[in-house]
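Extended Data, record Ubiquitin fusion degradation protein 1
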Amino acid sequence: MRLSTGNCRHPPWAFVLVLSLLSLLLSRCHANGADIPLFAGKATMQERVDVAMELAALEQGVDDVNAQWIASASSFGEAVSYRRLIAMPLTEVFDPPMGQFSRGHTQTGDKMSLPKVFFDAIQQNKAEVPWLFEVRRIEGVTSPRVELPDSSSSSDEEPKKDKKKKKKASRPDEWGAARPLEHLDSIVGGPLDFRAPPNYIFLPWWMMRSLGLRPRDVVDVRQITNVAAGSMVKFRPLTEQTMKDMANPQAVLETELKHYSSLTKGSTIAFDYNKKRYWFEVAECRSAPRGEKKPMIKVQDCDVASDFLVARDTLEARKKKKKAEQEQ
């Protein structure tokens, strides 16, 4: 959003009012089970105006980078293949209508809401399915990484702070994202829709966590076509109870993995099963046809074998036991 008022028909205060209303709307955006409001408590009108002006400056900076990219691009296809965007968490507001494939999987899939320019990129560059986009942190621009407490990955069923809230914890839409296996600088996913505002991208919370992002962090987003087709992936459940709860883990995997177009090594993704959310670390990715290790692979329309490693909590227990024995 540009704030130049040279030939504007509206007074400058009108922009402040609009931005204040926008900031109020954004302040209501919070994580599934991870409360990160943009305003702490009851903000005064002046505080909202200040935040709105900060948001305007942020949008202006993003807009300037994108304008420079468009001006220097050698073709229209190149011009629409990249944008610098402001990251926000995907919420249930984006849940597709009843009957659509991704219904109920906004947080258990790799789909993100993108601005319409990327639909133009798909058409202009004749991209083949699956349509994939890389979201990357920007050194010196993206704010410091958010660190999750260990307790966030200690249970598949609920965060530690909600252990006493059994009724709340039994609802999948109240759970937050688990701690990622690795600190990732980039992650790949597909489009849920193309209705995000021009300077914004909306990501599932597990993607936000994998990249260590806060709401309104700035990221680079690029259409990519060089992700290798997958041949094998190794998953590590966070808890041993996961494998006990699933009578046939492979069958659950085949069903739930359909909501992921790609997988990124080091991320921690979620599947819902019997009204519970289960988390799996993506421990290893291999490509077809030679089985080479890759940082990311396509899994949509690919014949991908899978394997389950020892659960994270079991692995940690073994390490603690071994350390205790060595200290004796």
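Summary. The longest strand covers residues 276-287.
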